[in-house]
Specification:
about 425 residues; alpha/beta; 4-stranded mixed β-sheet; 24 strands; elongated
């Protein structure tokens, strides 16, 4: 099992190119099931989760052609309407094949999903929405069985805001008869990116970017070309890294209009940022200032950045309070950061962080995807050497992180 060895205390200097967004790429790849035409995608990140979803799609009969960050999908010869447990168990996003398969072929068999152990994240909202569209659904032996000769448009209001639930129901509704209204829809940029792709494929969708999506079903969708948006979480993670270590880096292939809350908090920390049309220059000279925040749905503070900001707060000049409202188990990185000398105490869904003068390297273990990134940041800010175990989590969502950080001066190597 691979590990990362990080020697801390190095300032960052140079350029980093941000990859395509994992959370946009996964549903967009699943949209290839909706058409018999060619879906030509660019800026697809090279991640373990992307490999997994492509393997899952290929076993249905979807033709997959990949050339670096370009992927072409063709769904003219799909024969298997199943997502088996062995491919779904490591990644919750696999549930996103359910809506497209059901909408286009009238049935689907999808294993209940797995993924990071950061919370329950039930799929009941997916099921409730598909049932409203006319699907007959049973759960047996760990599988979701869904059938419906032709989905019918409906008004659906989810009980909670769910990103993958919105994406699944949005894809299903594009091929349903009549009008579907999705209320309480997720507004994340990744949902908007999927919706824009679907429109390019011939879907009729109004309200893109809002919490009320209106979809007029069409008989079929056609192929399209689309570039996946850049990853706002990767960009914000690298900005946290320079905030913790000091230095001067230029992020390229990024946007500033869809993570304003995180950028505002980085300014509070003391990071000086200069915005370009598709770039961010970040400079940090002194010790970080503490920032308190509460995670919530977009456009609020993203739960996917909670751990990375906590890493910066561990060495800040004061105390901070972090409240996690999205996932019930997303403080598992706290005990690992405390092993590095951090002073963090948790009380329910709130973490109290008292900034310390220094962190000291130690062996630590990654517990989930974003926790992995937070430990890399903490290790880069620490004195001495840190060994981070179980970094397969990191590879699920970051495209060669250690390569990108090494290129800007970090002392970080992968140990096989």
């Amino acid at each position: 099992m691979d590990k990362l060895q990080v020697v801390g205390g190095k300032r960052l200097q140079g350029e980093i190119v941000i990859s395509g967004a994992k959370n946009a790429a996964l549903p967009i790849l699943c949209a290839g099931l909706l058409t018999s035409g060619d879906l030509e995608l660019s800026n697809v990140p090279r991640l373990h989760d992307v490999k997994t979803i492509l393997k899952l799609l290929a076993q249905t009969g979807l033709k997959v052609t990949q050339d670096d960050e370009r992927v072409t999908l063709n769904g003219s010869a799909i024969t298997t309407l199943e997502a088996p447990y062995e491919l779904v168990k490591t990644m919750r996003a696999s549930i996103l094949v359910l809506g497209p398969l059901l909408a286009r072929f009238g049935e689907a068999k999808v294993s209940l999903p797995g993924g990071c152990a950061i919370g329950s994240r039930p799929v009941d909202q997916h099921i409730k929405g598909l049932q409203a569209l006319g699907a007959e659904i049973t759960i047996e032996g760990g599988y979701i069985y869904a059938k419906c000769k032709k989905l019918k448009g409906a008004r659906i209001r989810t009980d909670m805001i769910t990103v993958t639930g919105t994406e699944n129901l949005l894809m299903a509704a594009t091929l349903a008869d009549g009008e579907t209204i999705l209320e309480n829809a997720a507004r994340e940029p990744e949902v908007t990116d999927l919706a824009n792709l679907l429109v390019a494929m011939g879907a009729k969708i109004e309200g893109i970017g809002t919490d009320r999506l209106v979809i007029q079903g069409v008989a079929e969708l056609h192929g399209a070309k689309h570039a996946v948006i850049s990853d706002r979480i990767e960009a914000a993670t690298f900005l946290c890294a320079v905030a913790a270590t000091g230095g001067d880096i230029l992020l390229k292939n990024t946007r500033t209009d869809y993570f304003d809350v995180a950028l505002d908090k980085l300014r509070e920390i003391g990071l000086v940022m200069t915005m370009g049309s598709d770039s961010i220059r970040a400079q940090m000279g002194g010790r970080p200032k503490p920032v308190s925040f509460r995670t919530t749905e977009y456009p609020g503070f993203p739960t996917d950045m909670q751990a990375q900001f906590m890493a910066v707060n561990t060495i800040a000049s004061g105390s901070s309070r972090i409240t996690e409202t999205i996932f019930e188990n997303r403080f598992m990185h706290v005990q690992e950061m405390n092993r590095l000398g951090a002073s963090i105490q948790t009380e329910g869904n709130t973490a109290h962080v008292k900034g310390v003068d220094k962190l000291v390297g130690a062996p630590v273990m990654a517990t989930d995807l974003r926790a992995s990134a937070s430990l890399v940041i903490a290790a880069m800010a620490a004195q001495g050497t840190t060994i981070i175990d179980r970094i397969y989590h990191l590879d699920r969502g970051y495209d060669r992180m250690e390569v990108k950080l090494s290129a800007v001066g970090a002392d970080i190597v992968r140990i096989k």
